[in-house]
Inverse folding.
């Protein structure tokens, strides 16, 4: 952001060598997921990941409008990533769709095209609406994580769950799940989405640079972290049926601890 | 005991052909949020309707064309009922019970054996919960129909017609209860208890022949408590049906 870039780079590590929020380099921020939080969406999820708050709602398979988007071979999957005007102090979301949100909508849609069994619903559309209510770095990973839970909650047939996490480089150290400062001022930021079953990479973007060796190591770290994210996604879906399948409005939900 | 499985979770260590699963040649994985019982039976908890030939469906007319009617069957599906295949005539919004006679590769649905439904309303439930609403040998639907005095017609697609004849509100409440608690056991008894408590009529002693149609698919519901669909559902959801 321009407002941020004009400031000089803040320190990204504490004096004791830990990260600003006291995390170790391979530690995720606290993550909580609640599935089925909306009445009228076929499936929905609320993800609270550190200071990120993301809501995802799924509709469909339903009639594809506009008609020229539809395919006789498969359902089209349309994810719409959007940042709320109040999600951060910066310009995010202040004036509707942006270059950035269009890009994210596109890459998230393409990630899910690999796992959703869309051939069963030709000439229809599956819509996933992802709204960032509060952002603090890593929203695209949180958005993918939320969308996967919402799709599963809706019963859309999928070959796999998708779990995403960012890996980056902060002050020369590889670090997991970058916060906003680490993302803006760090050396590299790599959001990665993994298929939980076979570890296929469904989304990978790179900002800044890593050496080949660092990349190898980063992917190993990301893979291990995505398993933890997947466990929390699964637990959220199971909890829906433990509470009797009802819609929950989790106003009490706070970021939970992650067992390492 | 049964456990809840999420998409991509292993259902069987052998490749198997089962509804709501797919196989990579080594193992079998769930494709939907489902209940996996100890004997390897998989029952989906959520999901859209999968139209199949011979399904009895319920819907309403959304368009009248020269050659027939478009019947809404719940998104994303609508069926076409040819006037040639129907003696009855319908108006816009008429409720219809019909049989699926053809589903083509783009999931266009042709209907026949249409019957107008009058003097009631449609309720919408999740299509994967329809077998549970019908019950073993129509037990659930007969209980609801007889104790409330309503005619209840269940379509495979998730629309349920409930007539105004008896205690309509109570019948709807019971249907909603079945939908909400479909994954639990002993549901028929609890539904009967609810109906008794709220002033439903007593069930006749001997189980009478079904007076009220349940959609005509009760035979399949007979062998298991809640998953009659597996036997005829598409073997592999990855491969479009022909």
């Amino acid at each position: 952001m321009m407002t941020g870039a004009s400031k000089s780079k803040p320190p990204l590590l504490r004096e004791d060598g830990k990260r600003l929020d006291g995390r170790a380099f391979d530690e995720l921020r606290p993550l909580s997921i609640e599935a089925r939080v909306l009445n009228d969406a076929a499936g929905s999820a609320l993800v609270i990941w550190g200071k990120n708050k993301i809501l995802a709602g799924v509709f469909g398979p339903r009639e594809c409008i506009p008609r020229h988007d539809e395919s006789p071979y498969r359902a089209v999957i349309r994810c719409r990533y959007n940042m709320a005007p109040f999600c951060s102090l910066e310009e995010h979301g202040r004036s509707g769709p942006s270059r950035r949100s269009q890009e994210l909508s596109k890459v998230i849609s393409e990630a899910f095209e690999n796992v959703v069994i869309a051939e069963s619903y030709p000439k229809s559309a599956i819509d996933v609406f992802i709204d960032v209510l509060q952002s603090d770095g890593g929203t695209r990973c949180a958005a993918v994580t939320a969308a996967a839970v919402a799709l599963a909650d809706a019963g859309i047939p999928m070959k796999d769950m998708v779990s995403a996490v960012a890996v980056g480089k902060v002050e020369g150290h590889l670090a997991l799940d970058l916060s906003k400062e680490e993302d803006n001022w760090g050396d590299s930021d790599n959001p990665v989405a993994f298929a939980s079953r076979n570890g296929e990479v469904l989304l990978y973007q790179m900002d800044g640079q890593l050496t080949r060796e660092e990349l190898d190591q980063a992917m190993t770290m990301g893979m291990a972290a995505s398993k933890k994210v997947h466990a929390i996604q699964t637990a959220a879906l199971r909890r829906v049926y433990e509470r009797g399948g009802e819609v929950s409005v989790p106003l009490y939900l706070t970021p939970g601890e992650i067992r390492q | 005991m049964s456990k809840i499985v999420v998409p991509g979770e292993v259902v069987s260590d052998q490749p198997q052909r089962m509804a709501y699963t797919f196989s990579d040649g080594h193992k079998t994985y769930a494709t939907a949020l489902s209940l996996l019982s100890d004997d390897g039976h998989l029952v989906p908890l959520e999901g859209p309707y999968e139209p199949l030939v011979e399904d009895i469906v319920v819907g309403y007319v959304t368009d009248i064309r020269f050659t027939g009617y478009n019947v809404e069957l719940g998104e994303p599906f609508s069926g076409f009922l040819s006037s040639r295949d129907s003696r009855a005539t319908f108006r816009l919004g008429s409720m219809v019970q019909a049989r699926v006679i053809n589903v083509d590769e783009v999931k266009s649905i042709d209907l026949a054996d249409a019957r107008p439904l009058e003097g009631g309303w449609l309720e919408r439930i999740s299509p994967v919960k329809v077998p549970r609403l019908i019950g073993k040998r129509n037990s659930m639907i007969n209980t609801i129909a007889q104790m409330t005095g309503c005619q209840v017609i269940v379509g495979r697609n998730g629309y349920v017609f409930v007539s105004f004849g008896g205690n309509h509100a109570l019948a709807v409440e019971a249907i909603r209860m079945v939908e909400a608690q479909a994954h639990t056991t002993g549901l028929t008894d609890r539904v009967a208890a609810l109906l008794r408590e709220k002033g439903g009529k007593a069930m006749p002693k001997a189980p009478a022949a079904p007076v009220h149609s349940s959609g005509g698919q009760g035979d399949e519901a007979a062998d298991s408590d809640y998953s009659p669909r597996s036997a005829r559902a598409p073997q592999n959801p990855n491969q479009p049906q022909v």
Summary: Confidence is low (pLDDT under 50) at residues 206-242 of chain B.
